[in-house]
Structure formats: structure tokens, C-alpha cells
Specification:
By secondary structure, the protein is of the alpha/beta class. The chain has helices at residues 2-33, 85-98, 113-116, 135-149, 225-236, 254-277, 282-288, 300-315; strands at residues 40-43, 46-49, 67-71, 76-79, 103-107, 128-132, 168-170, 173-177, 182-187, 197-201, 206-214, 242-247. Bound molecules: zinc ion (2 copies).
Amino acid sequence: MNRATNSNNKDYFAYYLSLALFFLSGFVFASETEHTFNLTEVANGNFVHTGVHVRIEDKHHDDIANIGFIIGNTCVAVIDTGGSISIGQQLLDNIRNKTDKPICYVINTHVHFDHILGNKVFKSDKTHFVGHHQLSEAIEHNKEFFLEYYKNDLGLNPDTSSIIGPDILVNKTMQLDIGERLLTLISYPVSHSHNDLIVIDNKTKTLWAGDLIFRQRIPSLTGSLKGWLSTMDELLKLDVIKVIPGHGSISDSISEALEQQQTYLQHLLKDTRDAIAKGQFINDAMETIDKENQSNWLLHNYQHPNNVSKAFTELEWE
Ligand SMILES: [Zn+2]
Ligand SMILES: [Zn+2]
């Protein structure tokens, strides 16, 4: 009896333990899936998934960029694929929830990991990968780096074939037809990066700006400060009514979308030139340049010193 009771007690104990573990795992699962894949139709046929504002070292660093797709009458164009196979797969699943049309094009706005590492999920005979004329070379150049730093984001046993580059290159501009829907692609000289490309959906006048536009999250300068400022002047001339930045919120006006970034980069240019003229060293300049704008940006302390350093290197020999 005792034994039986004991065993019953054990059974109850095991039962409650498993119940507790079940709920606990449910809770952990729930908090994991709190980070659900958002998707919004910002203009007819234009679907955007907006990224989160975390550091590259943080959890969900693979989901920091705005990515999405445009559905035409005959097929779909994807614009950027996120920073991992997992994000790419979630994007593909969401496309398949909306349409079963083939994916004709995966367009990458530039080489940075948060925009391209999901590409592999879309590889098929029907799909062309499209990018700036410098993108192919840039991806080749970065493959080893991606494999080393983003190994865990590239699926099982990743190798160089896990990272897919473009097979269609945009020299200056290109039109893509996805079925009664023309997309205009424009590539720019060195700006945010060395291979920035934008996409305009002409039907809705929607601009997919890639990282030529940052909002809320501080811009990251990896190309040329002067180049980026002059590219922004070009962007301001575009006839668009909806603007999807590479990071941050969607805007209904190109001038509004660019305003804060323009101010930041103009200050960075002026203050860096002043610091160089005064004979300041780069480390001192990092401490003083544009501190007053600190509160306007998320992750300012994380990224601003890198921007100063990049600006300093660009401007010290002009
Ligand atoms: Zn980005
Ligand atoms: Zn970028």
C-alpha cells in the first residue's frame, strides 16, 4: 500500500511536474513568439515587414531591416530578404499567405547582411537576383566575413553557396515588369554603402529606399558622407508619395523621410571639417562632434563614433 501510495505520489509528482514544465515551456514558447513577423500593406500590393532597432550583437539582430515584396499581375518582386535564413523563410511564408504567383525577382538594395542573408530561401530556376552593378563583387568580397560572423544565421553547415549574389546587375537604371506593374530601379554612386539601389513601384509611387534612408535608428555610414548627401539631394527630386526606409517608420513624404537624416549628416560634415581644421585628433573629435543631436536617434552611442571615424577618414585629405 505504502509502496503503491508512494508510487501514486510519484506519479502525481511526475504529472504535476510535467504539467508545470508544459506550461513553463508554453510560456517560454509564448515569449519567443512574441517576436512575431509583422507585415503591413503600406500601398496597394506593397507589403512591408518592419525590423526592430537592436544592436548587431543582440538577439533578433537578423531582423533589423525593413524588407518586403510587391505583387504584380504575373509575379512577385521581393525587396531584401532579412539577415538570416530564418527571416527569409518567414518572409517567403508570408508571401505564400498572400499569393501563389511565382517570385520573378529578389532585389537587394545593398550588400549589408541584414538585407541579403535570407536570399538563399528564394533560390529557384524562376527567380532572378537583382542588384547594383557593384553588388556581385561586394558579396564575393564579404562571403568569408559573413560565414565567420553570421554563421548561426545561415542555416545548417553553411558554406559560400549559402550566400546568393545577383545575376542581373543595374548599371544606372532598369525597369522590371511584374505584370501591369513597372518597377524602376536606380543605382547610386557610393553613399550609405558602395552599392546602394532603390526601387520605385510606379503604380503606387512607392519608394523602397533601402539604407539610403534611416529613420529613428541612427544612420550608419559605411560608404561616403559627401556621396550620401548628394544622393539625398537626388532622392528629394523623386516623384513618390510613400517612402519605405531601410530602417525605421514608413513615411508619406520624401522630404519628411529625409529631414532628420539630412540634418545629422550635414552636421557630421561641418563638425568633422571644423575638427580637422582645428587640428583635432580623431578620438577627441568623437567626443565632441554633434553631441547635441544625441537624443534624436536610437542607438546613437553605439553607431555615432563609427560615423565620426568614417567621416574623419574621408575628409582629412580633402
Ligand atoms: Zn540595413
Ligand atoms: Zn546598410
